[in-house]
Amino acid sequence: MTIMDSLPAAPRVGETLGRYTVERVEPLPEMQGTLVLLRHELGARHAHVIRADDNSAFGVTFPTVPQDSTGVAHILEHVVLMGSQRFPVPDPFFSMLPRSLNTFMNAMTASDWTTYPFSTRNEKDFFNLLAVYLDATFFPLMRYESFRQDGHRFEFATPDDPTTPLKLQGVVYNEMKGAMASPGSVMWRAFGKALYPDLTYANNSGGAPEEIPNLTYEGLRAFHAAHYHPSNAFFYTYGQLPLARILDAIENHVMAQFAPQTLDVSIPDQPPFDAPRHESAVYPGTDVERGAQVLVGWKLGHSSDPDLNLRWSVLSDVLLGNPAAPLTRPLIESGLGSALADGSGYRDNFREGAFAAGLKGLPAGKAAEVEALVLRTLEEIAAQGIEPELIESSLHQFEIAQKEVSNSGYPYALGVMFRLLGPWMQGGDPVTGLRLDAQLGRLRADLAQGAVFEPMLKGLLANPHRVTLEVTPDPALAERAEADEAALVERLSASFTDEDRARIVADSLRLKELQGQEADRSVLPTLGLDDIPTAAPAVTYHTEQPGRARVARAAQPTGGLTYLDVQLRLPALPDDLLDALPLYTFAVTRSGAAGQDYVSLARRIEAVTGGVSAAVGVGTPPDDLNAVRLAVTFSGKALARNAPALVEVLRDLINAPEFTRDRLEQLLKQRLAGLKASVVQAGNAYAERLAAAQLNATGAVQERFSGLTALATLKATVEGEGGLDDLLERFGRLRDLIRTAEPLLALTATPDDLNLDLTPLTDLFSGDAPVGRPAPALPKRAPQARTTDVPVSYNAVAFPTVPYTHPDSPALLVLSRVLRSEYLLPELREKGGAYGGAASFDPREGVFAMSSYRDPHVTRTYQVFKDARTFLNGDLGERELTEAILSASKILDPLTSPDTAGRRRIYGDHAGYTQDLEQTYKARLLAVTLDDLRRVMDTYLTEGRATYGVVTGRDPNSDDLAALGLTFDVQAI
Ligand SMILES: [Zn+2]
């Protein structure tokens, strides 16, 4: 982040900027910014945040309140991104990804709004993307073929043969079939419907697969005309670019083309229930032992009320925020289920908010038991009172959240948008989402007067607007859904004449023809290679070596937070410890330490830190892919005043962790439930790991740490005889090993807070470090398939390549970008109906992979992977090359922030990935040619080197894979 000498001045209230009027100007002292709220003559609202951050952001959000579950808002989100008046290419959005240096681009449909946000550090890029976003949302072409491609369509199994069976197709149709296979999604949709049965939340805004075919093309267009209008738009901009210039662009591009319109999108209140209700829902799954969830939820007051919103946020954090929290702990310790149910906590994304708690990892039929447990526990808490220390700890967490400026996970620039969007869209005051001082002040004053939260709990318990919702797996559902789909096709097509059938064939051919057409992407704005910043921002730190530990200190504008990491590089370790290591890092911060049980330790962590974590990392040096390095890193953050206490917490976690059998059993069950759920969400990553595990030691370790092998190991430990005792014994050996490892500490803080005493940590390490490095056995080389309850497939192929310093590495990185945007996305998503397709190359791992996401095909997709060479030998030009290099450069220059910039440099340098090496890599990247791409493809991506992995719902060998020469080893997950 560069801090400019002077920020643009804020306009005055009442001032007009074109047809905009400044309605409010509010200082945002916590984030050193200013909020300007404007209103356009046509009714459009605009919030602009002036802040010294070179990552500028934009978002336009429309309240969208669907009246059915045809997925109209979601399908519209897809279709508006498929060509607009000024940019009539089939996929301006995907085409812009590689023409831009954006740090975020996306579109999202929630239950009552749709938003289109982006961010970028480049000014030219900002206005390029602004033009594309404005044109897409306000002037989309909404072609009939786009509706058919991404919405729904009939297609014959052989598209040009009307005697073959009819099928339903469509990107959203397939996407939602995948989404509704996940218990979390099913719970979330069912919860909105159960608690607000008369409102828009009762509908599946993403689209219920069985109702999507009811959406008509005319219905889609009408929904757009009504909702995507300036009068219904909430604009957001952030950064240090001049506001007048941004507003001018919006006025000229959008506002000037519209006449006034009014639309009532207001959501009424849900009529209250007289008595609590019980509801249920099912998802396709076979885990009847542990696959059910029960959630008990209440409707609360308006979430636009800032005091109510803050108080419920705090209360929810007090009750559920950590393993020791007074509601979490009895729920988990009951042994009924393994983890909190999806949807637990306070939810302000409904117009009237909700609070819910429950358990997952249950057998079916536990609704009454979980309900009784939740109610009894809340009654006890309300009667006994909440300890003031717990409330203080929670308020301290809000203080940290207010001060922290982080781009980790999500650009800060857009985090600000989502914070203000909540109250703003609900008709409340957007400022209250960004500035909690007034609400916090009133809360503290009320707390000084007497009980605040106990009366809230009593009110909750007396509130009859309550739902107990049970979500259970139904092993027959997948089959039934298929039969239902066939029946639906049958019903919808019963009256088809030969003419109708001929039209379906013609439509399919027309769609195929359009997809095959070469689009003229030169109408889209673009950046050039000279827009790529050549010099990386300098990050300085200094190092010292007290004893065996190395310490690096980096000064950063952290807003008063201190970040501390302790990386411990491990020596050779026996095979059984390798499998235990990720379980160790998962359990160690959630157990006890130094004489404190897990409850006391969790309270201590909550009271003095903003969170601690432990993770295991796998890496290799820049010039050798076979020299596996393993490290465990303990990390934490705290307000500077609590930094010494953070040091003590980390010391205890590293030096004196204490595990008990009961707690470990709880934790492992939680992890098992989490991993199982993630298979449906991230099946492509699991498939890639299955394939990469066969290639080299790093891949083999990754698979055992975070692949399906890790899931199988965990399952065996939890369910097998003596598994826990054996693991406890291995944990003891790991603890001893970790205490002898090679330590590197990285401290990030403001210059004032940089001299923190770290000797309590550095003193732990003395004597000689053990030597050697892990050398795990590779699994056998054969195509691997894992089956589970999914109606789609995740296909992957992987190839071993070269280390970071090899001159071919940058060309492989560029190749992955070319294949992704020019080949795999069109072939797999547009033509194949998969939700996604990708090529990936991590220069530090040296593995090149291609994969598909939520894919209806297996054989077809592997044929597409195989044909990549033919594509590459076709007519690729300089444009494709330039775009791929631009896109690759983003991977080399990730968006950092004060919390990450120092650590990234420190650990990069330590691992040998120095700034010099990074500059060499970038110089090579800028010089990559088309011939290089073809050469590295022929050298490294050959069939003889390929390994295969697939996560799927059925035996892939039943497909006709023989033509591809593939036979999969099949195992159920
Ligand atoms: Zn979608």
From TrEMBL:
Occurrences of domain Peptidase M16C associated (ranges): 471-717
Entry superkingdom: Bacteria
One annotated GO biological process: proteolysis
MF-aspect GO terms: metal ion binding
Gene3D superfamilies linked to this entry: Metalloenzyme, LuxS/M16 peptidase-like
SMART domains xrefs: M16C_associated
Name used for this protein in its record: Insulinase family protein
